[in-house]
Design brief:
CATH topology: Rossmann fold
Strand order of the largest sheet: 2-1-3-4-5
Structural class: alpha/beta
Number of helices: 7
Number of domains: 1
CATH architecture: 3-Layer(aba) Sandwich
CATH class: Alpha Beta
Length: 221
């Protein structure tokens, strides 16, 4: 049996990509952090809109010998390096995450990761072995997204592709659909309970190691 780790040494990086302070996405971030905190693990929040993160990958950020990240990316890379669980929270806009989230992938997660390394199936030195949790939301229903091929495209591009390209240990994706203004508080609370359960499960995996599939709820995708 795996010896439990000291929870105070376990860190989660929560990357939030929604501009609305009163949004359900912000509620997800707060709830996840609160639940992980109850388990005495550490979370750090990177609110991309709050810090006005620049999503544009500049020419001098392309992976070349002597690569040196810009200061904002260097600080983000330090956050990633310290974390074992990367948590992405974003809405689906026009079938994809917001540009600010894609820019985070380009500039931070993909920093100094070359096409040659990608084609050779070499994992990212910064991300290999880390775990990814995604919470996404959409105003449209899940069946509507599936009918138009958007759900499959997103899953392949952000779940399967990123996990394999960067050498992540796993990806657990929970999606909440039909998220619109004026949601019934009971509906919101039901969804936030799913967030709490997911936070507990992911924190447990980090502390105790991989658990038998029967003890873990299956990913919601």
């Amino acid at each position: 049996m795996t010896t439990p780790r000291d929870p105070a040494t376990i860190r989660h990086l929560v990357v939030l990509g929604h501009p609305g302070l009163d949004s359900f996405n912000h509620a997800i971030a707060r709830t996840y952090r609160e639940e992980v905190g109850k388990l005495h693990q550490v979370t750090e929040l990177d609110d991309l809109y709050a810090r006005n993160f620049d999503p544009l990958l500049r020419r001098d950020e392309l992976p070349v010998p002597g690569f040196k990240p810009r200061p904002d990316v260097a600080s983000s890379l330090a956050q990633v390096d310290a974390a074992e669980m990367l948590v992405l929270i974003y809405p689906i806009w026009f079938g994809m995450p917001p540009a600010i989230v894609k820019g985070y992938v380009d500039r931070v997660l993909g920093a100094d990761f070359s096409p040659e390394e990608l084609k050779a199936d070499l994992p990212s030195a910064a991300l290999q072995g880390k775990r990814l949790t995604i919470f996404s939301t959409s105003a449209a229903s899940r069946p509507w997204l599936e009918e138009r091929g958007q759900w499959l495209a997103l899953k392949q591009a952000f779940d399967t592709y990123l996990t394999r390209a960067f050498g992540l240990a796993d990806c657990h994706h929970v999606h909440f659909d039909s998220i619109v203004p004026g949601l019934d508080p009971r509906f919101v609370e039901e969804h936030l309970e799913v967030v709490r359960q997911t936070a507990r499960e992911r924190a447990t995996v980090l502390r105790y190691g991989d658990l038998p599939p029967r003890l873990l709820r299956q990913p919601d995708f």
